[in-house]
Amino acid sequence: MNKEEAFGTVLKKLRLYKGMTQAELSKASGIYQAQLSHYENGTHSPSPENVMKLLTILDAPQEYFDFFYQKKAEETLAKNIRMFRKINRITQTELAKAVGVTQAQISSYEKGMHKPAPKHLSHLAAYFGVDIERLLNEDIFEPQSQSTSEMDYDWEMAEKVEEESSYLSSCTPPPEDHPEELLCKKFQFLTKANQEKVFEFMDFLLSIQA
User: Fold this and answer.
1) How confident is the model at residue 181 (pLDDT cuts 50, 70, 90)?
2) What is the pLDDT of residue 150?
3) Cα–Cα distances in Å, from 59 out to 2, 52, 68, 124, 137?
4) Phi, psi angle pair for 52, to nearest 5°
5) What is the pTM of this model?
6) How far is CA 10 from CA 7, 13, 40, in A?
């Protein structure tokens, strides 16, 4: 039995124990009766918001909230933080600075390893210009024509450029008119896209170097 089927079984038992019909639960929750039927049959997966709403109306025990809501919400939140960050074209470091946490914390949020504290969750929602419920809604993003691997490649390259650019700016500058000094000066005037091409070409040269 998968999680959708498990939730459907629990939902139906709780509804019957409460003495409610699907129509009554639909009216109380604002969720279409047909949708509730899909939930109970295990054919559709409810959003974390709807899980919370239904379990609250049916007075579910705390362990059901822990299993069905909290875990699902954390997984969904992790995905949405990552997607909102990429849509806004910012790095983990930039987001961390804006929200008031460390880059390591943002990374752990995106991997679902840790959940943001309420204060930081509120800051994330405000930064992205959405309410907290949207961050917890798994249906925010429709499938894109661009594959996930293509998106990951673009962002991995952007973060690599950020790291290597930071390294170049922090290293001790060589003597004036030294080839490395001239390279560093010219590099700073390149666009982000052209900086990426420089690193790709450098990687290629290193790979064929004897």
Assistant:
1) low
2) 39
3) 23, 11, 14, 30, 22
4) -60, -45
5) 0.43
6) 5, 5, 8
